[in-house]
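Revision sheet: structure tokens.
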Amino acid sequence: MVLNYIWIAFFLIAFVVALVRLIFFQDFDIFPQLMNIAFENAAVGFKFSLGLTGVLTLWMGFMKIGENGGMINILSKAISPLFNRLFPDLPKNHPAYGSMMMNIAANMLGLDNAATPMGLKAMKEMQEVNDKKDTASNSQIMFLVLNASGLTIIPISIMVYRAQAGSANPADIFLPILLTTFFSTLAGIIVVSLKQKIRLLDPVILSYLGGTALLIGGIFIGLSFLNKEQIEIVSLLSANLILFLFIITFIVMALLKKVNIYESFIEGAKEGFHTAIKIIPYLVAILVAVGVFRTSGAMDYLVDGIRFIVAIFGVDTQFVDALPTAFMKPLSGSGARGMMIEAMQTFGADSFVGRLVSIVQGATDTTFYIIAVYFGSIGIRKTRYAISCGLISDLVAIIASILIGYLFFG
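Predicted:
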């Protein structure tokens, strides 16, 4: 229901802003531009879905091998003490635990294409124990917010974009992103736990969160001994090596259990194909609304207004130029990525704004995209408080990005 209101608001605000530009500024091209972007983004949404079809088919095929071979069950047991407390409504040793673990691991490694099919599989498995099929369950909301918070240890894609934009040290945003995304994920867990009355001071939860903090610290200490070229090589190699090791482990486990690996892969691949088809209308709806809102100029007016208010209080306004990326990030990953690249080209990849947009881009994930795709794939229409909790996590990420950006580069 909330997503319905937000979707309508995008179009209404875009129409009002465009009408003002037509009447007062005689911008006769604005409405043709709005219609063009609507058609273009509809095509983009369809193409994205087609592109996702291959990835979904591949990874859900491997996930089925892992499931039939027993590896998913092993992963489920490894994280069950923590997840039993964060997902109290989900039965113990449920298959969704393994899928969620693979999804979170892929996100931490910065492998979005691998994370999405695993996340979709987890949502589908949780839907099997959801009594109200059109309404998001507590477990689905917690998992979605964990995804929206976008915990990332190795932001390899951001480093690549910075290198392409001419950065002298593309990896200099590694630690800022690591810190910021940890804060956003922690905020997401806290806000959902408070809503669902989950006891966060539980020793098990504290030990897992503390262990994660130590792991992040250890990775940072280890990488601090490397130069930027070595960091990029280690990050890229380790991320893909770990993921491929998962695949090999799935296959070996299945061999030991004498599972028909090829048939298992085909079975899972078929699920991936059907899931991708279901996503198309939801993805098109979101991308069209975001494109119209951006093209109308509503985003520009919002940013200029914030700049004016910030200047009144005598606060440095450098960060305001990074806000379009921050505002777009919850709405459209590709839109935010485009704004990040545009900012780096305009201000320089190693400028304060260039670095700040990189932190913002890597600090969290695309809330509305995740909601549209994950909930849309299983027919969830009533999202309850998923959007508000996801946006709170996004807000923490934006604030943390700005503060940490000034701390490191201001």
